Amino acid sequence: MLNTKKLVLAALFLAMGMVLPFITGQIPQIGSMLLPMHIPVILCGFVCGWQYGLFVGFVSPLLRFVLFGMPPLFPVGIAMAFELAAYGVLVGLVYHKLKQTDVKGMYLSLIVAMLGGRVVWGLVMVLLTSVAGGIFTWQVFMAGAFINALPGIILQLVIIPMIMLALERTHLIESKA
């Protein structure tokens, strides 16, 4: 894929990361649980590669804070920047290094990225909360990374492979198969 095309697509994914939280925010009970900024970052890693996924992932929460004041910068926004960067890098690296890039490869890449991103988020939260004099417990990690995020995890596992398959079948992106 041409670098110009990747750059334009990365900008589109970054813009989606700015807009999607407004849409899911209209569902007060589970809006933030749907993890709306994660989806465009993961798609960016799949479509454009790990370098673009890293950049879009790291910049998205920071730019959204500068533009809209959300998410709060410390500790949430900073931790999200590292988490989303990990998502973009991991999904891009695993997917593009696999020989098998069909649906199984998509799911493997997605699961590795989802687990890795959550570990990075937890490590950064431990560091940031300890600097601020707080405590980040195992229970807080499990609640934030998995229990409260369950609707978003399910949404990602359902929608991202569907979007990728649709993009490949319509030849909007190059098929790896």
UniProtKB/TrEMBL annotation:
UniProt entry keywords in alphabetical sequence: Membrane, Transmembrane, Transmembrane helix
Superkingdom assignment: Bacteria
Pfam families on file: ECF_trnsprt
Bilayer-spanning residue ranges: 6-23, 35-53, 73-95, 107-128, 140-167
Name recorded for this polypeptide: ECF transporter S component
